[in-house]
């Protein structure tokens, strides 16, 4: 499969076919690709909420200015960042590294200290911004993986984060909604699928030294 061909056929889908659903197997593959996303230090300072419940999505649509993608896609992925990132966050990650790589925690002390230094030197606002950047990297992985799998998608920022947090009741989990990814299959009625892709020419976008 030619990845450039797949990326040339993807677009921000505006109208999903409600009768066509992404299979459970393909959804699992997509979520695994997102799980494998790059993130700073590997901390993955976010969670991905997979919303399929029709009632919840109807409420979320109202908090998304009525955009139909919210209810018509197969699943709505909500990327939510952790509202608190501190040494406890680093400790949990070091425990995971030690367990996964069968390494003594003592051998990870230097790495742990470096992460603690980074986390400790930033304000809560800076940490939230940092976490948001990591969530957007994961979103990018989801967009590319969807294209490779032949799944249509739409990244979305047009929603009320506060209302999403309330509807999903995630404040108690220490999370804040940041960006969405609707996934499913395009409707033949979506006129945007027939438009040429508009991107800068290579000679205008890339500056080589």
Helices and strands in order, then pairings?
Blueprint: H1 3-9, H2 24-35, E1 46-51, H3 54-62, H4 69-72, E2 75-82, H5 87-101, H6 109-120, H7 124-149, E3 152-156, H8 161-168, E4 175-184, H9 202-205
Antiparallel strand pairs: 1-2, 2-4, 3-4
How would you describe this structure to a colleague?
Helices cover 46% and strands 14% of the residues. The protein is an alpha+beta fold and 209 residues long. The protein has a domain at 3-82 and 128-185: NADH Oxidase. It has a four-stranded antiparallel sheet, sandwiched between helices. It starts with a helix and ends with a helix. The mean pLDDT is 97.
Please describe the structure with a list of short key phrases separated by commas or semicolons.
single chain, 209 residues, alpha+beta, NADH Oxidase, 4 strands, 46% helix
Q: So what's the CATH class of the domain at 3-82 and 128-185?
A: Alpha Beta
CATH topology of the domain at 3-82 and 128-185: NADH Oxidase
The average pLDDT is 97
Number of strands: 4
Q: What is the rounded distance between the termini?
A: 32 Å
Judging from the principal axes of the Cα atoms, what is the shape? globular
CATH architecture of the domain at 3-82 and 128-185: 3-Layer(aba) Sandwich
Low-confidence stretches: none
- Percent in helix: 40-55%
| Rg for CA atoms | 19 Å
Which H/E pattern describes the elements? Answer: HHEHHEHHHEHEH
Strand order of the largest sheet: 1-2-4-3
């Amino acid at each position: 499969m030619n990845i450039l061909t797949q990326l040339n056929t993807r677009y921000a889908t505006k109208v999903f076919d409600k009768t066509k659903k992404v299979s459970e197997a393909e959804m699992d593959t997509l979520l695994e690709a997102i799980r494998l996303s790059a993130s700073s230090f590997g901390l993955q300072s976010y969670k991905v909420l997979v919303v399929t419940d029709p009632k919840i999505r109807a409420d979320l649509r109202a908090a998304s200015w009525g955009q139909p993608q919210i209810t018509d896609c197969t699943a709505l992925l909500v990327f939510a960042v952790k509202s608190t990132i501190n040494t406890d966050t680093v400790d949990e990650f070091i425990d995971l590294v030690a367990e996964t790589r069968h390494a003594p925690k003592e051998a990870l002390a230097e790495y742990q200290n470096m992460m603690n230094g980074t986390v400790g030197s930033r304000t809560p606002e800076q940490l939230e911004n940092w976490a948001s950047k990591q969530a957007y990297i994961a979103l990018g992985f989801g967009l590319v993986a969807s294209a490779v799998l032949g799944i249509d998608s739409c990244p979305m920022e047009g929603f009320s984060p506060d209302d999403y947090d309330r509807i999903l009741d995630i404040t108690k989990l220490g999370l804040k909604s940041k960006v969405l990814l609707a996934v499913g299959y395009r409707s033949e009625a979506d006129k945007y699928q027939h438009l040429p892709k508009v991107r800068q020419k290579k000679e205008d976008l890339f500056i080589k030294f």
